[in-house]
Amino acid sequence: MKTFGRFAGRTTYALSLGVILLFLIAPALLVVLLSFSNDPSIAFPPVRWGVRNYSTLLDTPKWGEAIVLSLGLAIVVAIFSAIVAVPSVFAIGRTRLSRFSALPFLGILPLLVPQAAYAVGLYLVMGQLGLLGSFWGLAAAHLAVCFPFVFVIARSGLARLSPDLELVAMTMGASRFQAWSGITLRLLVPVILSGGLFAFLTSFDEAVFSNFLAGPGLITLPKAIFDSVRLGVDPVITAIAASLMVFTAICLGAAALLRRKETSS
């Protein structure tokens, strides 16, 4: 009886896990299959197979321009997220500011505010500063929601490093800055790069701020997708979605490798 009960429990667990995985993976697999359809509309199963959607994606200037803009914006945002987050993490974790327990909460505050509400506030601020519809205004908006990813990951990495490493370096003649840059910062490089990748992906996929703050001459890839859907579902979107999934998987794999490198060191 116990054997039967154990078998039934394992079977139920396996079936439940299979259903959950199928529910999560099936939409992605469906999009990948549809991206290789040569039909003029999106329908499953495709009648004709081919790579027309991918060739259209490469041959249409608006998609190429949107991809280039999104890549450039995401790179800038990832770099500035690291530049802002790393000193903030050190200030909170290695100075007297560590006594103020509310400061780390401020670092993740943008993630707790609904993006639509946050976008309305940024719209008013950017309007006063004359940055509406500009690249740097949009980059600043993306920075607000991408910075917390680098902040949280870098803070967790710094918490695992003993302050004694810097003290030992300073007892051997190194200055505070030399100990910080030569030991602690160097050990945190994989963590910072991992957080930067998450910031990059978040910025690249950000659609709410782009729709609120970007002007007609500043069309990111998510905004171009939304604009295309409003006019009718373009089959090219399936090729874009499939490419983004592969690109995201590569970036997440790179982030996992960086985290593993940081853990092993």
From TrEMBL:
Keywords, in A-Z order: Cell inner membrane, Cell membrane, Membrane, Transmembrane, Transmembrane helix, Transport
Membrane topology qualifier: Multi-pass membrane protein
Keyword flag Ribonucleoprotein: no
Domain ABC transmembrane type-1 stretches: 67-258
InterPro entries from the UniProt entry: MetI-like, MetI-like_sf
Protein localization: Cell inner membrane; Cell membrane
Segments crossing the lipid bilayer: 12-36, 66-90, 102-124, 136-158, 179-201, 236-258
Segment forming the signal sequence: none
Keyword Cell membrane: yes
GO biological process: transmembrane transport
Pfam families xrefs: BPD_transp_1 (PF00528)
Chief location: membrane
Any single GO CC term annotated in Swiss-Prot or TrEMBL for this entry: plasma membrane
Family classification: Belongs to the binding-protein-dependent transport system permease family.
Name under which the protein is recorded: ABC transporter permease
Organism in which the protein naturally occurs: Pararhizobium mangrovi
Phylogenetic lineage: Bacteria, Pseudomonadati, Pseudomonadota, Alphaproteobacteria, Hyphomicrobiales
